[in-house]
Known about the structure:
homodimer, alpha/beta, Rossmann fold, 11 helices, 53% helix, DNA-binding, phosphoprotein (chains A, B), Response regulator transcription factor (chains A, B)
Amino acid sequence: MNNKITAVLVDDHAVVRAGFRLLLSSGDKIEVVGEAARGEQAIQLYQECRPDVVVMDLSMPGIGGLETIRRIVQRDSEALILVFSVHHEQVYVSRALNAGAKGYITKNSAPELLTEAIAAIMRGECFVERGLLKNQQDPQPSNDHQAILAEFSPREFDVFRLLAEGMTAQKVADQLCLGHKTVANYATQIKKKLQVDTTTELAHIAVNLGMLQR
Amino acid sequence: MNNKITAVLVDDHAVVRAGFRLLLSSGDKIEVVGEAARGEQAIQLYQECRPDVVVMDLSMPGIGGLETIRRIVQRDSEALILVFSVHHEQVYVSRALNAGAKGYITKNSAPELLTEAIAAIMRGECFVERGLLKNQQDPQPSNDHQAILAEFSPREFDVFRLLAEGMTAQKVADQLCLGHKTVANYATQIKKKLQVDTTTELAHIAVNLGMLQR
DNA sequence: ACGAAACCGGGAAAAGTTCCTTATTTTCCC
DNA sequence: GGGAAAATAAGGAACTTTTCCCGGTTTCGT
């Protein structure tokens, strides 16, 4: 096997991409054949390069990581996507895997894990960093919120997250490039699904699920 | 000193009162001369009994613990009030002391601490459970929120707390027996002081200060 | 290809917010 | 005690947000 594994990097932060490029290249097994700063670029790049794997951050401007995964997988159901995210919360992991990712590691995991993970998903395995899924198959008594949330559509989830962070509906609309009425409608719908009355309670749910840091 | 220390107990939960009555009486130094389930009763009881100390929970229906402390101290500036609360957060401690309490211990502190605390405040000392105030005089770099919050008027603080919990302005108005316009005005004022735009951000502040449990 | 679900937003009524203003009460200081 | 300052309470008017209902498009699975 003389051929290196080809990879593309997707992250909105150039410094992070540079670092990961070095990290990946250092092993002599992997070659980074492309970089993208946002989802739309990544999709296009994928179709041009057809790399063996995609290494992708979740938080990005524009369509965001989850949606990017969905679109790539939609175009090539064999695509191997490894998520590396700052989020270590279960909700993000399960949503990423549901979207079609084959692996999930966090940004502060051991550097070796990155090549390990890539090797694993190249073998057809599904690689999730140790500990990230432990709460998931445990029969947790409470928190049907978690379950409800996991069934949210991408848009619902985005609107939920941004509202829960404390943004006004108007700002959410700007960020997602939607009409304010649209966001308002989603908000109403989300509150109904989670059976709460106020946006503040959405924040509490997000906090309780550990979705919000700092 | 043949005379026992006289005390009144204030807590909205009868079981808790019963337990504490036993606990206090067991030492042979203290005699419980009265009990009250809520602030209004407590104030009346205090004027009738004039006990040496008042042992009081903070969370109560009606006017609440802080307001009760204020009103008792207002009528008798020599009153010795010991707060025992479930809350171990700095904000509550400092507000209780500002309101006029002479001591603060939490409900899961060692039982001996209760008699110790009473003895201390009887000697004219101010007794705060170890560790509860440690963050306060530390020059903390961040969190001016804490400072701003500590200067809130009683009403501002109540409105803030209830809004942060996720109540609608209308429900807050009902709870505090105010007009909805009044609550709305307080809400605007509070947001301005804390320099945020949304009620959701108030929740985040409360969470970050550890004011909200579960 | 057809139904289901997701997605987007218009319109109207209800609810909530902001800003300004007024008034009473409490508190604090000299 | 008298007066300044702060807290408390709320009305009115303009404005924004939210809710509810609806219709339209795109996309997906089978």
